[in-house]
Protein 1
Amino acid sequence: MSTVMLGTEVAKSMKMTLSEEVKCLKEKGVTPCLTIIRVGAREDDLAYERGAKKCMEIVGIECRVVELPENISQDAFENAFAKVNDDPSVDGILLFRPLPSGLDEEQVKMTIRLEKDVDCMNPVNSSKVFLGETDGYAPCTAQAVMEMLHYYKIDLAGMKTTVVGRSMVVGKPLSMMLLNEHATVTICHTRTKDLKEECKDADLIIACAGCAKIIKEDMIKEGAVVVDVGINVDEEGNLCGDVDYEHVKEKASYISPVPRGVGSVTTSVLASHVVKGASRRM
């Protein structure tokens, strides 16, 4: 029987630590502050916003929301972003993406202050991840996977790891973070020839391709660690990950579920980045 890696447990532990750090900062006159910038009102954005606000409230971080109309002009959008970017009381900025059609995020990606770039939009922070530097911010979801592996004491050194997914949000930066902890990493994706064979020999499989139940039971070896980052809806309309969980869990030594897995840790990572920014401001 596998050990279920619950992100809710990881997040709980992180929030306890963060609450103490925020308390110390407030005693020194600094209140950490996150500003969320949302254009329009997409349901997935609103759902993440609710979760982020709740997490920030629990640990004592001030959370502001700047809501912009979906039909805002490029100039007005950039001006609104610049106002938040230049606000000295703001320690972290979270811009919900993708933006509505007609808006270009490239300008704000290049101008966001590195110390406020808590979800790794700026290419400079991305390069820090690839260089193994720790003074920037990794993408929150990629960092959430690492937090989960650390919490469950998975020793990555020398571990044969297959990452199924190559996005700049998860797959590529996560692969670099795993390499920095001495894992041996293979990057695959939905167009990999014979994906099954690439996965079968892995000690650790991280599924982040965004394809429902792509990782089947016959693709993993007995005792492998399986981390599911995917958020999908199956043919029956139920939330599921990239892993065929009910069948794979019988072979895995550790496995993360969807929901209550990696996604549960993401907002706590976001909070940790805001606290890091506030500490620098102090």
Protein 2
Amino acid sequence: MNKKEVLEIRKQFTPANCAITRIAGCYVDHEKNKKMESKSAFLSLPEEDAFKYFDIFKKVLSGTMGKNMLNMEFPIDQEMPGGTQEFLMKLKNSKLEDDMLLEEFYDKVIDAYEYAENYYIILIHGMYDVPGKSSDNLEMFDASDEVYEHILCSICPVSLSKAGLSYNAEDNCIQGRVRDWVVDMPDKGFLFPAFNERSTDIHGVLYYTKKSEDLQPDLIEQVLGAKMPMSADTQKETFQMLIEDTLGEEGDYETVRNIHDTLNDMIEEHKEEPEPLELSKTDVRKVFEQSGVSAKKMESFDRNYEETAGEKTSLLASNIAETRKFNIETPDVIIKVNPERADLVETRIIDGRQCLVIAVDDHIEVNGINVRTIKPPVHDRVEEQNESDMEL
């Protein structure tokens, strides 16, 4: 799914567009005991509760594609009888009215989900009447192409509210606030089937994670059975290793800066596209070559790529590039540079020492205090004074 398709489904979580038919939930304590289970028609919920649920469901379809929302595919064996995809299809087709299927689903999540505190599993069933589109790409709500039937799961931590004082209007006094259990925004979730090319794709699922570095492989493997993707953090680390292995000990600042600039230029050119910019091994090779990596060093690129990432692995540009920061670090100094002005910093050998030189055309601040630029050397000031005396 791309960001436009995600947004189209996300828009259904409003009172005006609501396509949710049923909702089911299971409250689990820190010892993995089921404390409460419920199921009902979604439209039977009080309006205030429905709005709060909408916020939770929208969160599962939010964040960055490839980082918080991950497209996954089912291996062929999981689509066979007894596979995870077949089970999810049964759950969807049951419209959440089969108690045994719900119990089995809850058990799968409880066994696989790693969380030390209480949490709430929410499952909804929806039927979205997908509007057709005219030749000029405008939606035709009276010309539906298909009904997208789906389930969406949200796993929400439940935490005890903070202790504090509150005003009791009935007794007209200040007293200790009653602490209760609060359902937080989801930590994990998924949408099945995927909504690819504005149509049902039973071979895919969209997975949500609040923290990109915490994918919970057991949950993906046991509940979804989908192919485990490389996390955003792992992609970044892999790309950094690839740069270091390819450039070797002779890797220089200018080449690394060029790679940074090349990636950011590609992201900028691609920003209007709904699909995230995905780089294959060939694409990454071109990035290195365009950034000035020598032909000699590129001889080891294919081997390095296969060893660090895998020959057929693709990397998302947004996961491996730094678009918001450009930091230069030494053991004692950290320099933060505007990513768009990395050209202001260059390397030079001064008095036999390797130095970073920063062009300063404007003012300088030290701990928030405006200071003058560096004074010229003494001999330059003496020459300037002599020229002034001669003019007098």
Protein 3
Amino acid sequence: MKTIDFIINPISGAGNKKRVIRMIEKELDRSRFQWSYLYTSGPGDATVLAGNSTADIVCAVGGDGTLNEVARGLLGNDRTFALIPCGSGDGLALHLGISRNPRKAVRNLNTGVERTIDCGTINGREFFSICGTGLDAIVSYRFATAGSRGLKTYISEALKTWKGFVFDEYDITVDGTTMSRKAALVTVGNSDQWGNNARITPLADASDGLLDITVIKPFRTIDIPGLAIRLMTGRLAGSDKVICLKGKNIHIEKQGEFIAHFDGDPCTFASPLDIKVIPSALKIIVPEK
């Protein structure tokens, strides 16, 4: 019989954690699993709890930030990660086909299969879904400090940020090849999306040993509807406003400090940004199909 530690962030996203626990108690196969609940009380708790866990499977119950903390605590050991997404975006979960419906996510623990995925680092900090700088990073910062969560709040903050936005000049080096250009944003993805099926790096594969880079060129307000449609339908790579690349080592420079984000959390870095892939870093339970 395998053991599971559920690490629960009681305040992440908009998910109802009590409902998740009801689903676990109702749907998880008691003939195969024994489990415990561990609760976080502040930043960094999930990493410590995961690192100290002796369970066969450690499952994050929360959003992308909780996912990041739990997964970081499991790097370098042989335990398996699992995910019940309850966040505002849930980008990695959606990329891997893990349902945001708690009943289906719990059932995935009964029927899912183990897959190995890559991890990225941005200036030494691990991420498992997306990192980047530019317009989306500024929006991420404003979203993190907004009084409410959810897609509507994100869109509202994005529109506010767009007013008066100035395009930065970037020097972007991917595996030794450099290009210099102004850009609205530079996003690096292990998964294909920010979350909510907004596929900013639509060609990404979390298990291919590579990171995907999307550079969005300067655009006008009139271009936003077309870019948004492509973003939400996975066709961003076909736009003449977009450059899509793949690589293992990404080096980004610009004047001044970077406002950046990784797995939804905003941060600041002095220039440059060094982003790398760690292949086959994490075992995770995903749907069989």
